[in-house]
Write the structure tokens for this entry.
Amino acid sequence: MSKIVVLGCGAVGKYMAIDLCKDPSYEVISVDVNREALEQLASEYPIQIRVEDLSSAEGVTRAVEDADIVIGSVPYSIGYSMLENVIRAGKNIVDISYFMEDPFGLDELAKANGVTAVVDCGVVPGMGNIILGDQSRKMKVTRYECYVGGVPKSRKAPLGYKSPFPVLEVLEEYIENGTMVENGKVVVRPMLSETMTIDIDKVGTMACLNSDGLRTLIHTMHIPDMFEKTLRYPNHVDQMRVFKDTGLLNTTPIKVEGVSVRPIDVMTSLLSPLWKYELGEADITVMKLVISGVEDGKQATYTYSMYDEYDPATGALSMARTTGYTCNAVTRLVLDGTYSQKGISPPEFVGRADGCWTSVEKYLEDRGVKISKR
């Protein structure tokens, strides 16, 4: 029986553990600092639990000491240090913590310790990268367009949005820049600076925000034109622009009646209860990839599309399903040796390996997450 340790019992980590525990060949251990969340999980599913502070090297080391493989699903602020400590422990890992540091800074350490470490392995980055890597085996890709977003199914949600992730992280993204590649050059633009829209089947018109979701692709794929757009309802984007323009998303403290506060922290406090998904409330995740290039000497374009909804049978939000199940699928590939490249592997490397995308796609389809291709 293989022992899988899931670090983090949050919005996604919880459902990854639930999915994996259904396989009798796995012993699943969920680790978090939140005892209450762990005990609730263990009361409903055959999952072992362990309380550890995953922000400390000692906590991570203790958590993974008996693991056959590790899954990382911790806050981005501690993601890099968690990954480093897992690698130092000599354990293979598949991670979705999306930390800001360069993962290749740990490449030599991972190779020295004989560790396979797959990072950024969610939806986008993640699933989209795997598809791109697979497609690049068959054609010379010259353009990659990615449109992806997770939103409440109802457009009547407060300010047109809700999030299973910390609201501060969402607001911080809106004041950051998006990075893309145009004519072979890296271009940086503010996330809220453009007004492009796109029509998505079953959803309608969505606003496209500049995103930093390309991440490792900028350095690994050498495609002259690439971008990733985050999709949101148009009314939500209009509101976020107003908040940004009026300084409500500023991170510099201001004085209010003698008290120093950051405007973005005030907004986080106000929006957090409004943007929390209630039990049974539905979300959707949509993705559209347009991959163009030369195949067999001819111009070719492939479009991949995904539409996924909240699953009332399991209570899993779509964002947890699409992110978590992709990560679990790759975890299985590493665990059984199908993918075994040592060092840091962004998901596009997994896609380049023969048969890996086919296996991931089958895993997703078995769980109702379907990707169409034309």
Notes: The first helix runs from residue 13 to 21.
